[in-house]
Amino acid sequence: MEPTVKSTMQLGMIGLGRMGANMVRRLMDDGHRCVVHDVSAEAVDVLASHGAVPAHTLEELVATLEAPRNVWVMIPAAFVDDTIQRLAPLLSPGDTIIDGGNSWYRHDVDRSGPLLVEHGIHYVDVGTSGGVHGLERGYCLMIGGETEAVQRLAPVFTSLAPGVDAAGRTPGRQGDPAPTEQGWLHCGPSGAGHFVKMVHNGIEYGLMAAYAEGLNVLAKANIGATDHAADAETAPLDDAEYYRYDIDLAAVSEVWRRGSVVSSWLLDLTAQALLDDPKLDRYAGSVSDSGEGRWTIHAAIDEGVPVPVLSAALYQRFSSRGRSDIGDKVLSAMRAGFGGHHEQKDSSR
């Protein structure tokens, strides 16, 4: 349940990038004392000018924090293991390391094992959603780890989370708001937080792909007004009269935001992007993936659970980066081989 008395804490933050720095600001705005460290001395100094306590080395960060220490690591997944290896020997029994990045949940299970147990250090994994807007909107937090460590960090989670006003209360919920209604959840033991966040991001891939595909269909709805080649290589458009719509994507995304069953924050962001850049000329369309979509599909395979939508969304990201180039050329080569078909320039784009 929500604490009746607000308490503040001291927290060390390692990693002051797009999310880490804003999380520190949000925590300080709510009265917490933050000691900050980053490989960039400039990033440390910027936050120090806003009231954070600077630490230009891990040793300095640990020495500045009072026991029991809470150190939040907010860095790319590839650097977490090395950071923990260097950090753990500096800490004391009863201290806690929190990984708030996008680590693979299996790594959390491994990290919470012998190394940290040997030092008597708690480990908490926190899947963090909120992106660059989290300073104002708050962060949805999915947490794994020992109950004792998670409960001790509750004031930090409550400050970072959006709070009960971020959404209307679900009908049937009564009494004081639970942490879930604040915007954070203890999902289970080590790895559970990042497991839930992993699936969250897999779903995100699917939602984004659905919006993108649907808007692309709307964008091509005027295909009937263009000339089409009449040859053996081009599928005819028999119903050209039904495709003469010049759809304003910015206007459609705007109207969908109001009362539509597909309204969402993702749609809000899409509407803003289309208003600012109607043809999205500033984007090349090369879409990265940071791992969570792959891991979700990996888990689904292990569980024997079908995830065709999430899989297709991930594969589309691969294709957007040119990873289907050889496959596409093989298709063209086979068509040329068995039927003498020559590649045609796509005039419908």
Q: Tell the overall outline.
A: elongated
Q: What is the CA–CA distance across the termini?
A: 55 Å
Number of strands: 8
Task: Indicate the percent of residues in helices.
Answer: 40-55%
Task: Characterize the biggest β-sheet.
Answer: 8 strands, mixed
What's the average pLDDT?
A: 93
Number of helices: 16
Question: Mind telling me the C-alpha Rg?
Answer: 25 Å
Backbone structural class: alpha/beta
Strand proportion: 5-15%
Side by side, the strands of the main sheet go: 3-2-1-4-5-6-7-8
Which stretches of 5+ consecutive residues score pLDDT under 50?
1-5
Could you give the order of the helices and strands?
Answer: EHEHEHEHEHHEHEHHHEHHHHHH
Description:
The N terminus is likely disordered. This protein starts with 9 loop residues before the first strand and ends in a 10-residue tail after the last helix. The chain is elongated, with a radius of gyration of 25 Å. It contains 16 helices and eight strands. It is α/β, with parallel strands linked by helices. The protein has an eight-stranded mixed β-sheet with strand order 3-2-1-4-5-6-7-8, with helices on both faces.
What descriptors fit this protein?
alpha/beta, elongated, 44% helix, 349 residues, disordered N terminus
What is this structure, in a nutshell?
44% of the residues lie in helices and 11% in strands.
Set out the fold topology.
Elements: E1 10-14, H1 20-29, E2 33-37, H2 41-48, E3 53-54, H3 58-64, E4 70-73, H4 80-87, E5 96-99, H5 105-111, H6 114-119, E6 122-129, H7 134-137, E7 140-145, H8 147-152, H9 154-160, H10 179-182, E8 184-188, H11 192-219, H12 249-256, H13 265-276, H14 292-303, H15 308-320, H16 325-339
Parallel strand pairs: 1-2, 1-4, 2-3, 4-5, 5-6, 7-8
Antiparallel strand pairs: 6-7
Helix pairs in contact: 11-14, 11-15, 12-13
